[in-house]
Amino acid sequence: MKKVLVTDSESRKALCAVRNLGTYGYQVFAGSDKKINMSRSSKYCTGFVRLPNKTDENSYINKLKKTIKEHSIDVLMPMEDETVELIISNKELFEDTHTLLPDYDTFMIARDKGKTVKKAIKHGLSSPKTYFMENIRDLELSISEIEFPVIIKPRLSSGSRGLAYVENEDQLLSKYREIHKDHPLPIIQQYVTGNFEKIQVLVIFDTNHELKGVCTYQGIREFPIDGGPVTLWKTVSLPELENKTIKFMKQINWTGFAEVEFIVDHKTGEYFLMEINPRFSANIALAVQLGIEFPIIYTKLALQERVSLKGNDRYERYCQWLIPGDLLNFILNKKRYRQEIGYFFNKPKNLYYAILSKRDFKPVLIHILSIFLNIFGNLKNLKAKLSSSKR
């Protein structure tokens, strides 16, 4: 059976991939710089490879090459933006294995939020009004033209890192300068108000840019509560939006997996493209449970095997990222007792879990352990900073 190396194996999407591939008999190796991680402890994991931290790019690439050669890896499956970018940027070094990734320029259309918006506008997709700055002076000169409130968004980031909501010119100038230090020249985008829901269209394309898998979700809860990764989501039917997404991704010659995120008003049909995540979604578990097995599709396409198109026709199926995502939402959500779908009780029968599994329970325990270790590590670092500041 073929061998697959799944990187960034501490993540829940990597665990989903390891389980999915292992169920079909693939030999799955988990790679990470974190010794304690979920995928390594899964019964479906063949072996673990300790990788350097990606901040040392040369060491990371060299170790990845060495691992592929030593274990005769057939398919390399990167899970995070930074890893995908490293591999694409050094594709000539990975000719001994198979991947399913776009070329660098196409990847950056999705990776860079500024490029995403510009390309979306060009191809007729709706996007919130966006302001692009070439330097800080540009912002100072054009600030009177900006309609508030707005969101400052780093061009290259994931989750809620670097995001800031601002309501006036003074806030914008100070926050923009602050974010600019770590995330150069972020975009400024209209804050859209109304009855909008977060929608994610998950897609995968072959090397000929033909669709081979699609599934659409609606986010129900998030953490952070006012905008972050979804912690509870469900499948929905939005064929028109799916078709727009597929057409757009074909127009930019996409290869591999992507998560395309919108906000949608179901009553009016109004929608806005928010971003494209050019790597495996953290929320693939629900699609996999419903038979749209993105890790299997990726592997087969990378190996140039024939794959039939897989789409979802089962709606109102739910998935919960309980620990720590939805648990944190429960702790901090003032409306916790007014939820249509409960956190621990009053759940629909057709609900699945992102991590919890009776058949493969050890990763759950390791995940809880890693959370405590992270909390302890953060507290230790905070204590050290406070101690040094008093000197």
In short:
With 391 residues, this protein is α/β, with parallel strands linked by helices.
Describe this structure in words.
The strands form 3 sheets. Strands 9, 10, 11, 12, 13, 14, 15 and 16 form an 8-stranded mixed beta sheet that branches. The chain has a 4-stranded parallel beta sheet with strand order 3-2-1-4. A 4-stranded antiparallel beta sheet has the order 5-8-6-7, with helices on both faces. The chain is globular, with a radius of gyration of 21 Å. The chain has 3 domains: 3-98, Rossmann fold (3-Layer(aba) Sandwich); 129-190, ATP-grasp fold, A domain (Dna Ligase, domain 1); 197-353, 2-Layer Sandwich (D-amino Acid Aminotransferase, Chain A, domain 1). The protein has helices spanning 12-23, 38-41, 57-70, 81-89, 104-111, 113-122, 136-142, 169-182, 239-251, 284-289, 294-302, 322-332, 362-389; strands spanning 3-6, 27-32, 45-50, 75-77, 130-131, 150-153, 164-166, 187-190, 197-205, 211-222, 230-235, 256-264, 271-277, 310-311, 318-320, 351-353. It has 13 helices and 16 strands. The model has no long low-confidence stretch (mean pLDDT 94).
